[in-house]
Design goal:
heterodimer, A: alpha/beta, Rossmann fold, 3 domains, six-stranded mixed beta sheet, 34% helix, globular, B: 10 helices, 2 strands
């Protein structure tokens, strides 16, 4: 596939961007600088404001305050020009069920004003990229969930966009389909495209994104590289302990040996830089089961956004 | 709400074309219906009922009825397309959501949908004209002017339907519009009988209905009867189409860009 043009400016620059719904802020004055050519992740629980932020970036809804530029175009004023150079993978598949795979691509391309031999070559490229060459004339309803997602990705690439916006691209996919999509997204990054994605999956963000912003209640709580977020916000080692009398054990033997601890249900999460003493102690207690692991993005996420359940 | 006048351009064409390509897939069965249904109506009502009715406004009932059927069909087709089909594309299939991730804007979609529904009116009304002509119920080649008029009338009904769709939360909502607006209009616009015998209030009320004006334009062209005030009727239909388009753009922008 041809290289995307490398613009000199940020892919996205936002200052004080906000959006109200019924008087309540869904996005509450956020600043964003997303450099071109990297994968930027927007993380947050349901209702954090991720999708609203993406909708504003795409000019799908006007902000109530702040300024926004995407690929150098002021948004929403020049949304049309911007969208000609952007690809979108929406949260829910909106492929045309009345069309075959190739008809979906052709019709979608017509919305960009694309047609002719150049388009047919492009269709071949994106079908090959999405590993859907054998499904060219298949109906949409005969495709698996993973194939539909790949077709949605292929469709988003039809205009050879510089910026690709993906809203929860792998939600609902099985592990194989997810791995396949991740691999495709990495290929796009090596081609110099800018990716912006939202996700609930921490491993997805950790594997794909060079930079991550954690959002909650319409604000950005932290923004850094995955390693930077883990290093800055959380102790490097974690032991998860569960079993009978875990609370008594924690109060009498563990509390003094850890830097921070949290309890979710029957499990105690212990955070510290050095876990040797605690591991020795646990080794002598067969009634308690435990997992010792390095801290990850999920720990940062839960620390920053809290552990309460969101619907 | 953004009250700016709709930004209209030729970008409606891909929206229209997408709907056309879907329709073309189901071309066979839908065209059979488009020819068979008016044939049944003209035979059963026109000739069956016509025997008892005799002449109406100085012409055989089947001749009177044919022009009414053309207009009623244009209305029903455009309305159905602007309500149920448009709602399916907006809410269930998210077709419009997909379009709005491309250089297309809400106004392009509204104009494309309106012109597509008008085209569907033409697709349903033209066979009625052909069947009526084959049965000898049409007076002269002037009747071909009916085709552009059906497009205009279809655009008016489609624009009104799209305004209703902008408020819909489910298909059930459309029953109000059909029961309270479309059915009365269907019966009281001079489609099946002249309004002369109706109370004055009904006759006056009918004058604000777009279907009345469509019938006043189409009937003389199909029957050879003299026109009265054709420019007025054209102006009313054009006004409905233009105002309907304006409000449909405003209302759907408000809904889709919330």
């Amino acid at each position: 596939m041809p290289q995307a043009a490398s613009p000199t400016c940020n892919a996205v620059t936002a200052r004080g961007l906000s959006k109200l719904y019924n008087g309540a802020p869904a996005v509450d004055g956020i600043d964003l600088d997303i450099p071109s050519g990297l994968c930027f992740g927007l993380l947050g629980p349901n209702g954090a404001g991720k999708t609203t932020t993406l909708r504003m970036l795409l000019g799908a809804t006007p902000p109530n305050g702040g300024t926004l530029a995407v690929l150098g175009y002021p948004i929403p004023v020049q949304a049309r020009e911007m969208r000609a150079r952007v690809g979108v993978v929406p949260q829910q598949d909106n492929l045309d069920p009345d069309f075959t795979v190739i008809e979906n691509l052709r019709v979608y391309a017509s919305y960009f004003g694309l047609s002719g031999p150049a388009l047919e070559r492009r269709i071949e490229e994106v079908l090959h990229f999405a590993a859907l060459e054998s499904k060219t004339r298949a109906g949409i309803n005969t495709l698996s969930g993973g194939m539909k997602r790949r077709l949605t990705l292929a469709r988003a690439l039809i205009n050879d966009p510089e910026l690709l916006v993906l809203d929860e691209p792998t939600t609902g996919l099985d592990p194989q389909a997810r791995q396949m999509l991740w691999q495709r997204l990495r290929t796009l990054m090596t081609q110099g495209k800018t990716l912006i994605l939202t996700t609930h999956y921490m491993e997805e963000a950790e594997r794909l994104c060079q930079r991550i912003a954690v959002m909650d209640h319409g604000r950005i709580l932290a923004e850094d590289s995955p390693a930077g977020l883990i290093g800055r916000h959380i102790e490097p080692q974690v032991i998860e302990v569960y079993g009978a009398d875990v609370e008594t054990w924690f109060n009498t033997h563990a509390r003094a040996r850890v830097e921070r601890a949290e309890r979710i249900g029957e499990t105690v999460f212990c955070y510290a830089h050095d876990m040797r003493e605690l591991l020795d102690d646990l080794a002598a207690r067969p009634s308690l089961r435990y997992i010792h692991r390095p801290a990850n993005l999920e720990d940062v996420f839960l620390k920053l956004t809290g552990r309460d359940l969101r619907d | 709400m953004n009250l700016l006048f709709p930004a209209l351009s030729l970008r409606w064409i891909p929206v229209w074309r997408r709907n056309f390509l879907v329709w073309r897939k189901l071309f066979g069965p839908s065209m059979v219906g488009n020819f068979v249904e008016p044939l049944l109506y003209l035979l059963a009502l026109g000739f069956g009922l016509g025997v008892f009715v005799g002449e109406m406004q100085g012409m055989p009932y089947s001749v009177f009825l044919a022009s009414g059927l053309v207009c009623a069909s244009a209305m029903n087709t455009a309305t159905f397309e602007g309500l149920y089909s448009a709602y399916t594309r907006m809410a269930h299939q998210q077709t419009w959501g997909g379009m709005l991730a491309t250089p297309l804007m809400v106004d392009d979609i509204v104009l494309g949908e309106m012109l597509w529904a008008a085209t569907k009116s033409l697709i349903s009304a033209a066979p009625i004209l052909a069947v009526a002509a084959a049965l000898g119920l049409v007076h002269g080649m002037n009747a071909l002017w009916v085709l552009p008029l059906v497009l205009l009338a279809g655009a008016s009904f489609a624009a009104l339907a799209l305004c209703v769709t902008a408020f819909a939360r489910s298909y059930d909502f459309f029953v109000y519009y059909f029961t309270l607006v479309i059915t009365p209009m269907f019966l009281l616009s001079g489609t099946f009988f002249p309004l002369d015998a109706m109370p004055d209030a009904v006759q006056w009320g009918a004058q604000i209905l777009p279907l009345t004006h469509a019938v006043e334009l189409v009937r003389p062209l199909m029957t050879g009867a003299p026109h009265s005030q054709p420019l007025l009727h054209l102006a009313v239909l054009t006004l409905y189409a233009a105002a309907g388009l304006y409000f449909a753009c405003l209302l759907l922008r408000r809904r889709l860009m919330a």
